[in-house]
Amino acid sequence: MKVAVVGMGVAGAYLLNRLSSEHQAEGFEMKAEKNWYTVCAWGTSEPFISDLVRQAGFRFEDYVLHRGKKMVVDLGDEQLEINLRGLVTYDKHRLTHDMLEGKKVHWGEQVKAVNGNFEGFDLVVDATGLHRSLLPKLSEDLVVPSLEYQVKSKELPYDDFVIRPYPGLTGYWWYFPLGDGTAHVGAGDLKGRYRLELDEFVKKYNCEVVRKIGRPVRVTPPRLCEPFFDGKVVGVGESIGTVFPMLGEGIIPSMQCVNLFVEHLGDPEGYRRAVLEKFAVYGKVYEFIKAKVEDRFSLLRMWPTLLSIFWYMRSNERRYGLETRLTDFYKIATRL
Ligand SMILES: Cc1cc2nc3c(=O)[nH]c(=O)nc-3n(C[C@H](O)[C@H](O)[C@H](O)COP(=O)(O)OP(=O)(O)OC[C@H]3O[C@@H](n4cnc5c(N)ncnc54)[C@H](O)[C@@H]3O)c2cc1C
Questions:
Q1: Is the pLDDT of residue 165 over 80?
Q2: pLDDT of residue 322
Q3: Which CATH code for domain 2-335?
Q4: Domain positions in the chain
Q5: Which of 105, 178, 284, 295 is the most exposed place for a label (fewest CB within 10 A)?
């Protein structure tokens, strides 16, 4: 099979490495190679992602920047300390770049439509993330604006992960250490309240801003991101909603989505069903977040949903890299 992969983010780069050698694949990326960058806070779960990365022939431990022990969740009137079970930051840019080494990539090619452009290709993969450039527009699409600074300073105030959820759970502020006096400080918020806060942080701790990046994150779950297909176009990754809505966490799910795509190559309906099943819980989390944001959250009505999200996270502590306690979960869900 000849496959065109459009978008060289984590999903596209991983896919180029997961297709077996019996297939021919080429990548297309709208950014020129020198301007291309992986916009992200680079946080993930080491025990879980290591296996995925190994399947592509890489050693995840070579890219780890900081191994977390505890994460502080700042609720304003109380600080929760969450024990970490493998949450790390890693050099996502270097790993993604290494995954493209030796691959045929057309840099600086923005693909706007397939039309007659991909003759000779059997499939065109839409791995364009938020842009979803090749699949039909979504009728319901919730995207959270975000901004992030990569900072360097001798006066950084924290030595481990810190997050501060915004009232109404419209998003959160984060501090992710990158080691060696550097960190990602950023925020995603539906109400976009963060710029001042980030600038104040930079001033207060005498930070050099190495890079300012940002783009919205899609938190619409896969079940609302159909269709996954359009002619010979197939979506993978954030273009079809594989981001855990509570955390805006999309690295591992995008790679899992790629693996489902590879397992079901030539079986579109099988792929569709596998994606919907794998990410079904994202739909529940999305309903909870929407109810909070739209101020129609009722603990009584949503208790079964909350409990099932809790049990999902509790039984997937290795997947998310953090301990999930019912009391913490309850406080975060109900107090804000
Ligand atoms: C500020 C921020 C922080 C985040 N932090 C984390 C985190 O710490 N941990 C985590 O797990 N997730 C995080 N996420 C989410 C995660 O980064 C994404 O969900 C994940 O990268 C999605 O991967 P993707 O490959 O599907 O899309 P992307 O990584 O967005 O890649 C899409 C690629 O397609 C290219 N492209 C777009 N349109 C076209 C076109 N028409 N033609 C050609 N190329 C095109 C883009 O330039 C880009 O290179 C964060 C997101 C943001 C915005």
A1: yes
A2: 95
A3: 3.50.50.60
A4: 2-335
A5: 295
φ, ψ for residue 261 (rounded to 5)?
-60, -45
**What gap in Å lies between CA 317 and CA 87, rounded to an integer?**
10
pLDDT digit string (tens) for 99-116? 999 999 999 999 999 988
Ligand 1 pocket member 12 (CB < 6 A): yes
- Determine the distance separating the centroid of ligand 1 and the alpha carbon of 95, expressed in angstroms: 14
Does ligand 1 come within 6 angstroms of the Cβ of 161?
A: no
Per-residue pLDDT band for 126 (boundaries 50, 70, 90) equals: very high
Probe ligand 1: pick from 36, 135, 234, 251, max atoms within 8 Å of CB? 251
Which amino acid residue places its CA nearest to atom 15 of ligand 1?
250
Residue 64, beta-bridge partner list: 90
CA distance 247 to 171: 8
Decide whether any atom of ligand 1 lies within 6 Å of the 146 Cβ. yes
From the number of C-beta atoms within 10 Å of its C-beta (0-12, 13-18, 19+), residue 77 rates as exposed
pLDDT, tens digit (0-9, with 9 covering 90-100), for 137-154? 999 999 999 999 999 999
Burial 140-174 (b: 16+ CB within 10 A, else e): eebbbbbbbbbbebeebeeebbbbbbbebbbbbbb
CA of 129 to the centre of ligand 1 (A): 5
Which pTM value belongs to this model?
0.97
Q: 331 vs 74, 167, 291, 299, 313, CA distance in Å?
A: 11, 12, 16, 12, 15
- C-alpha of residue 92 to centroid of ligand 1, in Å: 11
